[in-house]
Structures are given as C-alpha cells and as structure tokens.
C-alpha cells in the first residue's frame, strides 16, 4: 500500500536531546509530508518534501528523503518539552492524496 | 496562511441520531476536499474525496449511505453521519485542496470530535 510507516512507535527523550523519527513506504511517491498532532487536536503541517528533493530544513527540523530506500527521516534538534506530540508522515502518489502512517509518539521530558 | 475551519469542534449525540459536520475553506476556493477519520492513538484514515458539484468518491469499506458527503460550493463540504452509533465515535478531520495552487497544497481543519452515546 501507499501508506507510510513510522519508526519508532514511541520515543522518550530528555529536553535538549535530538529526536529522530523514520518513515518507510512501499511504492513511488510524488511527495512526503510530516505533520505534528498534539493529543486530541488537529494536524500541524511541518514540512513537505518532493520526490526530487533530498533534504529540507525548517527551524529546528530537518527532513531527509531517500527515494532509493523509500524512506524519510525527521530530525528535531535541541528538543523542548513543547515538542511532545505525535508525528505522522504522509505520502502522496499520483493522486496527491496524503496517506498517513500510524505515527510516532514523542515525549520530551523537561 | 490558508485556513480551514470545522464546525462543530465537538459534538455529543444519542445513538440513532444524525450529525452534520461542516468543513469550510475560509480564504481560498477548494474544488476538492477530503474527509478523514481517526480513532484514538491511530492513524488518519481517508474516508472519501469530495469534489465540488459532483458525487463524492468513497474509500473501500466506507458506507456511502451512512456517511453522506455534500460539496455544494467551492468553500463548503459537509459530512453527515446518519443513524450514528457508538462505534462511529471518532475524530473527523477534513482537508481542502487550494484550487489555485499546486496539487500537493492542501490544508487541514482542526477536527471534530464525535461522541455517540
């Protein structure tokens, strides 16, 4: 299926540490997006990376995409307690309709 | 940036009643909107694609007679959960594709939490 799968399912770190989450998918894509969701809330769009791009940055976020391995990673540097949330990757193929993975639950301890 | 709103943000209803959820694009036109459902601690699952002026396209396993979708204008799509039951309790999220932008530009609403008693 097109669905992305995040790894790990859960991640617990201390404030100031870096957090890395991975996303793998099975078929070719047009783009991959990362979203954050706080408990019981809506989605916050973080970064969109297209299939012809390899790396994008936004503030403390760094996203890489390796289409040969069909995988992406999201790195959050110098994490803060406020980064505690669930993080989802969503892949889009020819229809440009995002299909979401199960997410990584990140807990940042102050 | 572009804003998508949903109304209501939460709703509690009795089993057997129908509930309508609105999704509006506030500052752009959306020929296509999408409806997702998310159960606790799970992923967002696409339910249907809503196209303005035409019938919605439902994903496999989603009952079109139970989840009625209407996209009557370029800024409004509605999802009606008919004869709701406790198993329909979920977080419903819509997204809207900006008509004037690239295909991969879409914006998500804040979600509607439905609880069926």
Descriptive notes:
Chain A is mostly beta strands and 110 residues long. Chain A is 0% helix and 55% strand. Chain A contains no helices and eleven strands. In chain A, strands 2, 4, 5, 9, 10 and 11 form a six-stranded mixed β-sheet that branches. In chain A, strands 1-3-8-7-6 form a five-stranded antiparallel β-sheet, with no helix packed on it. With 117 residues, chain B is an all-beta fold. Chain B contains no helices and eleven strands. In chain B, strands 2, 4, 5, 6, 9, 10 and 11 form a seven-stranded mixed β-sheet that branches. Chain B is globular, with a radius of gyration of 13 Å. Classes of the chains: A mainly beta (110), B mainly beta (117). At the A-B interface, β5, β9 and β10 of A face β5, β9 and β10 of B.
SSE class of chain A: mainly beta
Name the biggest interface. A-B, 23 and 22 residues
Sheet with most strands of chain A: 6 strands, mixed
State the helicity of chain B in percent bands. under 10%
Topology:
The complex is a heterodimer of chains A (110) and B (117).
Chain A: E1 5-7, E2 10-14, E3 19-24, E4 31-37, E5 43-50, E6 55-58, E7 61-66, E8 71-76, E9 85-92, E10 99-100, E11 104-109
Parallel strand pairs in A: 2-11
Antiparallel strand pairs in A: 1-3, 3-8, 4-5, 4-9, 6-7, 7-8, 9-10, 9-11
Chain B: E1 4-7, E2 10-13, E3 19-25, E4 32-38, E5 44-51, E6 57-58, E7 67-73, E8 76-81, E9 90-97, E10 106-108, E11 112-116
Parallel strand pairs in B: 2-11
Antiparallel strand pairs in B: 1-3, 3-8, 4-5, 4-9, 5-6, 7-8, 9-10, 9-11
Keywords:
heterodimer; A: 110 residues; mainly beta; six-stranded mixed sheet; five-stranded antiparallel sheet; 0% helix; globular; B: 117 residues; 11 strands
Give a brief outline of the structure.
The complex is a heterodimer of chains A (110) and B (117). With 110 residues, chain A is mostly beta strands.
